[in-house]
């Protein structure tokens, strides 16, 4: 028996005790958690809605104001890349944002932007509830409040950022790709969801890499790629440089942003390379990470789709420049961990999922996240988050290897068979 099997046998008594304790106190733990998250979500979301809609100082709708400025400049044919700080989005993004910010002042645009953002919150809650498969009303309530109370949700709302619009569009498209095609109209709808999600490309690319190699429908991906290329050409027509020059300027602007303000841009390889003085490796390493993700996804293309989605989400958070509102990506691996932790079988592994999930929830519920802590605690907090995310990524990679390995395993045969049956029934 190999080393992993020996370790599993060693922790089994502790796992059984922990599982029994949680089972005995399950209802009390959930009630305490629900009350705490309810209080936090109510106060935090009211504050962030005030920032989005009513605050006229420097804290009000910060990123929405930046995108309004960028978009107005873009379609006024004024230079954007390298001239406007924070203008790091590809050309098509400005065309996708134009209906919301391209023809309005900030005072009106912030109220208009609240509509897709709040719709995104509701849609994401519905999708997460459906896919998490909670067993009772307490679990459902806890899941909803956890999503609403996480600091990333609040910061996205207050800043007028994009993840709350991107994630439900992306998740709905990914789940639809796994189902058999219902015809061209259905594929066009999925492609439309993907194009909408591509308003923030760096959040979406790792998921598209997985979808491209997984045994899912491909026509929506092709349609989305064609549509996005068309949007890029139309957007580029409003700027004087050529398309190739615009793309180079965009990549340069993104690399510059990735190496600036590492305290805000944290928990990703761009920040780590910048801190180590290896800025020249930013683009090559990001590309290498995507290649590695594509290879891994192809090797494990038959495993539960939520493991694939969870791994893609961790990679999306780690592979390039991000700030704390992009931590909303971690909601997706939280769903994958919850599904594993609450599975009815394979109990030798579910304790690990519970521990990783609990640690993830704990840091995601810190009020204000990074910005709610004293300066002396901010660096340790972001480092702890990165460690937890890497642990979650490692766990999902191990789970995928166990499920994909056809050879006799170090795990008991019944566990492997039950896992395979559960995966095939839920995929």
Give a quick set of tags describing it.
427 residues; mainly alpha
Shape descriptor reads globular
Radius of gyration: 22 Å
How far apart are the first and last residues' alpha carbons, in Å? 31 Å
- Low-confidence runs of at least 5 consecutive residues: 345-349, 408-418, 421-427
Strand content: under 5%
Order of helices and strands: HHHHHHHHHHHHHHHHHHH
How many helices in DSSP terms? 19
Count all strands and give the number. 0
Mean pLDDT figure: 86
What is the quaternary state of this protein? single chain
Q: What share of the residues lie within helices?
A: over 70%
**Sheet with the most strands, sense and barrel status:** none
- The assigned structural class equals mainly alpha
Structure explained in plain terms:
Helix content is 73%, strand content 0%. It is an all-alpha fold. The chain starts with a helix and ends with a helix.
Summarize it.
This protein has 19 helices and no strands. It has helices spanning 3-24, 26-53, 62-75, 91-101, 106-132, 137-149, 151-159, 163-177, 184-197, 201-213, 219-236, 243-258, 269-275, 282-299, 305-318, 331-341, 347-364, 375-404, 413-426.
Give the topology.
Blueprint: H1 3-24, H2 26-53, H3 62-75, H4 91-101, H5 106-132, H6 137-149, H7 151-159, H8 163-177, H9 184-197, H10 201-213, H11 219-236, H12 243-258, H13 269-275, H14 282-299, H15 305-318, H16 331-341, H17 347-364, H18 375-404, H19 413-426
